Amino acid sequence: MAAQNLQTPAGYIPPAKLPAITRAAVASCDAKDGLVDGLISSPEKCNFDPSVLQCDGKETDACLTSPQVDTLKRLYAGARNPRTGEQIYPGWPVGSESSYLGGWAYATKGPEPFRAQFFRDWVFNDAKWDWRSFDWDRDVTTTRERIGPLVDSVDLDLSAFKKRGGKLIVYQGLADPIVSAYDTVNHFAAISRTTGDTQDFARLFLAPGMGHCRGGDGLNALDVITALETWVEHGTAPDRILASAQGPGSTLGGLATAAQVSERTPRTRPLCAYPKQAKYTGKGSIEDAKHFVCVAGD
Asked: Of 20, 162, 221, 279, whose CB has the highest number of CB atoms within 10 Å?
């Protein structure tokens, strides 16, 4: 979907323009979580209008043409069945455009989109298949029928896992340019509806500014492993996990150790078990996690 939108000649958004989009998105959405800190912690609350970036005169890397504005709106909206209007896959959260791994350009800069060969070989078994021809009504059904049972993990009933004492921690970067954070949230909610209350065996943590599992300009280092061990071995469920900003190029991600997370860094924050969110107490440095509490989301 992203590639089909980005690869049209008029609507294609060059990678050089992605940083400007992210800057505009942050400027528009930063305060929606109640704190101006350069991070988008609540992208779902933001109504960022890409039209503010439309060029007024000569096109530059700091502005978008009208077709590019339309492309951006489509990317935020996500893929829908053109016949029924059903949401097939959610759009990308604002702020993910130019994050870790080159942002959206990682999957779309060509000459063909990321994993096109997967569909060419596995789904259609046709060496001449053209990804531009993918039909978001007919071909979605075809894909599900041909390879869905082989590659999809879609069983939402984790009651057996829960019954035998299993514990699950899911973490997701809100600036992930490959897997939409909205898809992870939706999947977690679906598990809750199917299995029942997940809080006693599964927790979700959303990391503002983190890219695909790691990296990014935000909270990109957290010690998930120790949190899981503590839960399994001592029965203490994690209500919050300490996260830190290790720099844009960090590769620590959820594999960071407790020592690495607690190193002297420009910023530390608690990540709260979803749907709770970190809220600034109003006193002390916003760079220090101890000045934040976990509260119910709005």
From this structure: 221
